[in-house]
Design a protein that fits this description.
336 residues; alpha+beta; six-stranded mixed sheet; four-stranded antiparallel sheet; 9 helices; 22% strand; elongated
Length: 336
Amino acid sequence: MSLPSIKSLVSTDPYEYRDNVEMGENTVQEVMLDLQSGNIHSYISYLKDIVDEECDLSVRAGVLMERLKAYEPELPKDMEPMVYVNYCEKSELGNPRCQKLSDLDSRTVEQDKAWYADCDPNTNEPKMTAQMFFTVYYAEKGDKMLHHFQGRIDIGSGNGGIISQLMMQNEMKLTDESWISYAGYFMSMKESIYVHYNSGAGEGVLPADAVVKNIPYNEELDTIKNKPMQSYGENPTTYEGKRGMGSTFLLGEGFKAPTCEGYEFLGWKLRVTPWGEAPKYSEKLYQHNEVFCISEENYEFAANSDLPVSVWDNYVGYQIVAQWKKIDTKGVEVKH
C-alpha cells in the first residue's frame, strides 16, 4: 500500500479535511486503517523529514510526530472488516478504494457472475476479466490493533467474489494464520456456514453405487429441482436457518443413523479438500446426532467452497462424511 498524502494531514485539520474531500477520495480512511494496524513508523519517518527541512510545515509536523509517538489505536466496537483496493484492472470496481469488505464482496460476486455468463462462443472463455489486488483489515473481539493480509482475485473466472476465491486458495486457507483467524471471524459476522452430508459412497470403503439410507435430506432447501439435497444452512429463498460461529446442531440433524447393507456405520468425519490436493479428514470421529458447535477449533474444515445448496453451487461450509466398516460375512463353521 502506498503511503497517503500526509502533507494534507499536516496542513489541514483531519476532521476539516475529511469533510472537504471529494467523494471517492479515501486518504483519511487509508491513514486510519494504517495507524489502527500499527503502521506508525512510516508516518513518523515522513514527518521527521518535514521537520528537518525547516519549512513552513515543520512546526506542525513536529507536533503531529510527537502525538503519533504516543498514539494508541482505539478500535470501534464490532468493527466490520474493511478492504483497501491496491489495484484493479477495471478501475471502476476499485472505487471507493476503502470500503466495507461485505460491500465489495457483493459487488465482485455480481460482476463475476455477469462476466462469466458472457462468454465468447468460439473460445468459450469470458469476454471480460479483471484482476484485483487488495488488503483486508479486520479485528477480533478484544483486539487493540487491526490485523491485515493481502490478496488477489480474478473477476470473471466464475469463482465468485473475494470471500469464495480466498477460500479456494489453499496457501491462504490452510497455512496463513492471518487468513485462518480472519476466516472464522468473518464467517461468524457475515457468512452463512452450510453443512452438507455425504454418504461416503465411492470414498474408499463403500462402492460408488452403494445404496445408503437415512442420509439427512433437507426438504426446505430443495425448492426447485425436487431432488435429495443434503445441505443445511440459510435458505436461499427465505433466508432462515443461518448458521455461523457459535451455532450448535446435531450431526445427523436428528435423522436415524445411516444404513447400508453389508456395512456398519461408524459415525461422521469432517472433510476439507484443499485446491489441487487430496481431501483432508478430521482426526476426530463424531457420533451420530452428537451436538456439534461451529468454533475456532474446527472452522478450518468449513473452507469447502463448492457445496451444493438446492440448485446453486459454490457455497462455503462443512462437508460431513459418513464413515463405514465392512461387515465380516464369513460363515461360522459348524462341526458335527
